[in-house]
Design a protein that fits this description.
CATH architecture of the domain at 39-121: Sandwich
Helix content: under 10%
Distance between the termini: 47 Å
CATH class of the domain at 39-121: Mainly Beta
CATH topology of the domain at 39-121: Immunoglobulin-like
Order of helices and strands: EEEEEEEEEEEEEE
Number of strands: 14
Structural class: mainly beta
CATH superfamily of the domain at 39-121: Immunoglobulins
Number of helices: 0
Mean pLDDT: 77
Amino acid sequence: MQKRFSQFAIVLVLAAFGSLSCTSTIWAGPPLPPDIAPVISGTPSTTDTAGTYYSFTPTASDVDSTNLTFSISNKPSWAYFNTATGTLSGTPTAGTYGNIQISVSDGTLTTPLSPFSIYVAASGSTGTSVPVMESWWLLPGMLAGVGIFARKRKG
């Protein structure tokens, strides 16, 4: 770890009219550079399927510190969070998990990643039905019709 300042004392001894005096001055060197906030980036996946492993690790750096730690707010109950790497991982259950925010800190300044949500579809969910062809006709005294539907598969 680099030292942020050095300090030393200059002692002057002055003789004035036969008397001796001592003066002490402390000099702290040049002004310290401002602390620069760490940088965090990454794009987490916002969809998954229940029972399928999920993992996201942001990228972070800091020009004036190598000791970075991560924190999270609104962590989903199924997830594990690693404070050393910022990795959010686990096997999710169906639901929508919103306003998740991962931050990085250098011990002085903290920078957050934009909040995100994860939509987890139930396992076995194949998406939505979309009509491909539909035909209806009216016969005397009854309504009849044929509908053909296709399932739009997820992924």
